[in-house]
């Protein structure tokens, strides 16, 4: 049987990217992709015209002394140039729009998968690593999928077209150039793996530097409070020197990689000039044709570099695809919309619940039984690490037990649609987050339809009326700037106000008084009794003495719940 609460779809092998994840957003934009492809091909064809027009201008106009013909071809060159310029601008706009929409779609798909993982699975990777995959790896993969397709076809058409135009003027010179093409290809192919390895090393180093900045900015006051400023500066110095070393390595190998094609192009030009000049002197080739041949020679060499770039892009994309595949290989929780809607008063029973984290040998919860009737206030205390927070995650459906069951009004929790179940539940975290944005946006996170009046009422109910009245911008106050100025008690009250707006049936409070002194903790408990009324409450705390008027009290120890006297220890 599939693990309760998790998607029964078999996990993929690491390194095996679900390519449908890339195909679906492309399929949804086939018309835009076809339009962009057509514009790119027309632009490539237009690029083949100027050398041909220049040849006609020289041979049929200048060499014949026919100014009218010269004027005609000059006008044609101007028209082609303007058309190419307009087409280039239109193509860029189309490309940017399609690229941005594709990248957004891919990010949404990956984020959807991350948000369906059990919290411990993706949080364990660290924010720096996840940001590197969400930003760097996704961008590389998206760029290869889109630019590789367009650039590859455009370069291939340009190469074949330029060779065909050379053959139109001189099959002998086309043969000479055709021989040089594989030489250039082999040179670039020989250097490309070394360049790709160094680019990958530079990208990894950039990720380390990004992680350094995230840690420093997130924990700046701690570093200051520990007098670690010099250590952070030294760390930055070391990371900067290493990044410079890797950057210079990329530039040096890139120079050697580019030097060969440039040398080959110079030799090819010399050969075309020598052979072409001889043919011109012999009267077998016209001067304008020689000028056009030199122009088409450059058009032959450029696509080779583009096609080799496509090869290098494929190598980088494979690395990024493997890193993203690791995330997709993580087993997801079941679809939050799949299941029944809860309809009863909300009686909760835990029966023989057993749980441990992945890779953990011993049970964290080794057979927990608990009854939580509607409207009751229940406290579970116990030492840190006993499994109290894990119990909350199990009730939220964010983790799945290995054995036992959670029932809501007699219905197994894993049979309920998590989305609808969580609409009835408010979770007040141990360290409440003040989300980026305004005070109103933070409060409306759980109740998007709440009016300004309801927001103010919630703040008044939790005792923040005076604090709110002192804010010069009121509900428009940006909490990103205010977060450092909010005390632990104010933060807890803001989290409670946010929960109240949801009008929940069940409130889960995880260490709600951890940041408060005993007097403030008892005052906060009295506030809970006042504002939550008959709402079912489950309080998790290792400071059980702060809470009174309990209907039941338990101690979680050794993976089991032990009933205790339901009175506070004041």
UniProtKB/TrEMBL annotation:
Its main location: membrane. It holds the Pfam family ABC_tran. It is a multi-pass membrane protein. SMART domains: AAA. The keyword Translocase does not apply. Residues 36-316 form the ABC transmembrane type-1 domain. Residues 348-570 form the ABC transporter domain. Keywords: ATP-binding, Membrane, Nucleotide-binding, Transmembrane, Transmembrane helix. GO terms for molecular function: ATP binding. It is found in: Cell membrane. InterPro entries: AAA+_ATPase, ABC1_TM_dom, ABC1_TM_sf, ABC_transporter-like_ATP-bd, ABC_transporter-like_CS, P-loop_NTPase, Type_1_exporter. It comes from the Bacteria. The chain crosses the membrane at residues 30-49, 70-90, 136-157, 163-188, 263-281, 293-314. This is ABC transporter ATP-binding protein. It comes from Halomonas salifodinae.
